[in-house]
């Protein structure tokens, strides 16, 4: 996906870049001094291009940050009392919602460095995600009387990244690694 580095960024983009720096310092990739210097640059940034040098050496899973994040109108996949299996368009955010049903998403074809934003929510239903063995899944979703689980061994850096949000209410969100068809 081509990225126009002259596009102005939002406060949300700056916050996402700051979170990437927080992860980098927690992982030991940056010292606290470097973190402070880069944080100043992030909060002063005006365009996507301003963020590139700040994040570029942190590895593909962090460097993509707000720069490589899919944009545009989200692709919505909703089911009620049904089951659907989809291979969604990964160039824009994905919103999956299952109510008394199931949504199965196939993201096994993601390429290294690709980043996908997924909102996976359910009410008395389930969302099941299938990814490749090299895909890093970051689940920032929450649960209310349900379950969220990422199965399989977490991969090393360099593969695709799927950032997941959403809420499982009396429902489930599960991630499986490897082919499934």
TrEMBL record:
Domain DUF1707, by residue range, is 7-58
Q: Name one Pfam family in it.
A: DUF1707
| Domain of life, per lineage | Bacteria
Q: Tell me the InterPro entries matching this sequence.
A: DUF1707_SHOCT-like
What protein name is recorded for this chain? Uncharacterized protein DUF1707
Q: What species is given as this protein's source?
A: Labedaea rhizosphaerae
């Amino acid at each position: 996906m081509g990225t126009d580095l002259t596009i102005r960024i939002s406060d949300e983009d700056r916050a996402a870049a700051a979170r990437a720096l927080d992860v980098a310092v927690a992982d030991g990739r940056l010292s606290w001094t470097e973190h402070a210097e880069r944080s100043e640059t992030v909060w002063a940034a005006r365009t996507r291009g301003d963020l590139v040098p700040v994040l570029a050496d942190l590895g593909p899973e962090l460097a993509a940050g707000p720069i490589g994040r899919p944009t545009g109108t989200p692709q919505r996949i909703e089911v009620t009392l049904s089951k659907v299996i989809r291979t969604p368009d990964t160039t824009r955010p994905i919103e999956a919602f299952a109510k008394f049903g199931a949504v199965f998403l196939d993201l096994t074809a993601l390429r290294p460095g690709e980043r996908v934003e997924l909102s996976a929510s359910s009410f008395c239903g389930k969302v099941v995600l299938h990814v490749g063995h090299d895909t890093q899944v970051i689940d920032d979703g929450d649960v209310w009387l349900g379950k969220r689980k990422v199965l399989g061994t977490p991969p090393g850096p360099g593969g695709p990244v799927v950032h997941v949000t959403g809420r499982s209410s009396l429902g489930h969100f599960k991630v499986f690694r490897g082919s499934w068809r």
